[in-house]
Amino acid sequence: MALLPCKDKGRAGKGNDGADMELLSKIAIAVILLGVLTIIIELILFLTNRATLRIQCDQADAPVYINGLLHGDSNIEARVAPGTHSVSVRKEMNDGSYYSFDGVVNIGKGATKDIHIKLERKFTELYFWGKAKYSNNPDDYDDYLERYPEGKFEAEAKAAIEEIFHNNISGLQSCAEYLKRYPFGKYAKEIKAKQEDLTFALCDTVAGCKKYIEKYPNGIYGSDPKIKRVKKLLSMVRFNPARTIEGHKGGINCIVSTGDKFYSCSDDKTIIVWDGTYYNKLRVLEGHTDTVSSLYISGNIMASASEDRTVILWNIGESPPVPLHTLTGHTGWVSKVVIYDDFVISGAEDKTVKVWDIQTGELIRTLHGHHAGVWSVAAADGKIFSGSEDKTIKVWDMQTGGLIRTLEGHSDNVWALTVSDGRLLSASWDDTAIVWDIKTLAPLLSIRANSTRIYTIKVYQEKIFAGSWDKKIRIFDLASGALLTELDGHRESVYTIEAHGEKILSGSLDKSMIVWELPVHQNSETKQQETSSDY
To answer: What number of other Cβ atoms are within 10 A of residue 388's Cβ?
Structure first.
């Protein structure tokens, strides 16, 4: 067998190498194609599992961020991977406010989710400052300062508020508001001067002048004639409690002064006679069997009325006083008694007024007309006046007993009547006192005491003294009705007030009487003081 030449063997090796290279190329191409195919398959799977997120907002053109990346302005549709995503929306406004939303959304593979977002409006410091600047309202500036006490515009806001208060000043209230807020403010001195001017401008009445004097005791208008007159008027009512008198065992219902003596009546059924100078008890008069409700003195005759339904006439010219007549006929508590000329007039719980002869004690006539108890009577100018729980005052002809007129004006029990210089004064549980003209019977003045109930009323030196349920005595100017002062000293309601020389006596349900006096230097001035005024 012949051997092949070596030359042929070399050629065969070269042919095998080419085949190997071809195979390797094919394998590489296959691997590449397989990788590409895998990528395509993965991409297809990724795109197939991708989720869709649709976000709608109640505000248009609001930027939407998903996972911190801006996806456009609302409303948007975004393709996202399945899983959890953060969603933020924020729309800035020109006024310093903005609308915003922050939340988290979970979405599954291939799912589509619709989200409807209601944006919440929020406000920055700039917004509140702009609002205050636009409105120029102090409330808005205050709101800014409350929210941002150390804010960027703090000083400017405070200055703006003070300017507003200053510019809005027109009357006393606005002056007071400025000074309350800025007692040491930029305009404080100016406003204080304006406040005094405005207060003085009200001094066309006693009440107005009194307000000025109380606020500015050393004011620049102190020498004005109106102010000086009212200062003197006020000095005449600065009564001080000089003494408290006790002796009764029950509430004090009435006090009557004769100058050297005074008489008091009480729930304890007695009348006490007192020394008018030293206030010593001189005598106790007994005769009634129930509360003594009223006293009236004319000359040497004293009439006393009682809840025992009687009136007793006493001769107080005798020592001791002696009873002259006991007047019987009322069927209810006798609340009030007065003497007028030769007549004794009594009013009672039985709704009647009776007229008696002072000399004989005989009943002359009975006046019917009230629909409830009669609690007060007075007489003047040929007329009898009776006040009743039926809220009216009836005016009767003294000679005939005929009804002249019924006066209406009170809304509760008319508890007290008194007459003074052509005027009738009535006081009621409705907390008012009315001054009437005795001739025309027209109302001249109405006064509210702010005391709940007025129990007694007295005119002295052109002033009205009213004793009330709230334990106080109020003194009013008779001409104007202005409240001058209040006296406070009793522990219970004040039921009676009487002038005793230059002093005032008051009696109360607290069983005591108080002697009220003016200071000595004012008392001497009072003797020379004219009581008329321009008001």
So the answer is: 26
**In the 8-state DSSP scheme, what is residue 3?**
P
Q: Which amino acid makes up residue 49? A: N
CA distance 107 to 85: 8
How many residues are there in the chain?
535
Q: Which residues contact 281 (CB under 8 A, 6 or more apart)?
A: 247, 272, 273, 274, 275
Paired tokens of 196? 């005094």
pLDDT digits (tens, 9 = 90+) for 419-444: 999 999 999 999 999 999 999 999 99
Q: Is residue 305 within 8 Å of 292, Cβ to Cβ? A: yes
**Sheet holding 483-488: strands in order across?**
454-460, 463-468, 472-477, 483-488
- Of residues 7 and 229, which shows the higher confidence score? 229
d(CA 312, CA 325): 6
511: left (phi over 0), alpha (psi -120 to 50) or beta: left
10 Å CB burial of residue 34 (0-12, 13-18, 19+) is exposed
Cβ atoms of 299 and 316 within 8 Å: the answer is no
Q: In what order do the strands lie in the sheet with 423-428?
A: 414-420, 423-428, 432-437, 443-448
Distance CA 377, CA 521 (A): 38
Task: Give per-residue pLDDT as tens, 286-325.
Answer: 999 999 999 999 999 999 999 999 999 999 999 999 999 9
Q: Is the dihedral of CA 14, 16, 17, 19 positive or negative?
A: positive
The pTM for the full model equals 0.70
Q: Are 279 and 291 in contact (CB under 8 A)?
A: no
| Location of structure tokens 């009315």 | 434
> What distance in Å separates the CA atoms of residue 214 and residue 195, rounded to the nearest whole number?
14
- Sheet containing 97-107: order of strands: 69-73, 63-66, 83-92, 97-107, 120-123
Per-residue pLDDT tens for 161-200? 999 999 999 999 999 999 999 999 999 999 999 999 999 9
Per-residue pLDDT band at 5 (split at 50, 70, 90): very low
**Which residues in 29-118 belong to E strands, given as ranges?**
51-57, 63-66, 69-73, 76-80, 83-92, 97-107, 112-117
Whether 298 and 359 have beta carbons less than 8 Å apart is answered as no
Helix (H) or strand (E) holding 420: strand 414-420
Distances (CA, A) of 102 to 55, 56, 105, 334, 435: 13, 14, 10, 86, 76
Give the separation between CA 366 and CA 347, rounded to whole angstroms: 10
C-alpha to C-alpha distance for 114 and 300, rounded to whole angstroms: 109
Task: Kindly calculate the radius of gyration of the chain based on its CA atoms and give it in whole angstroms.
Answer: 50
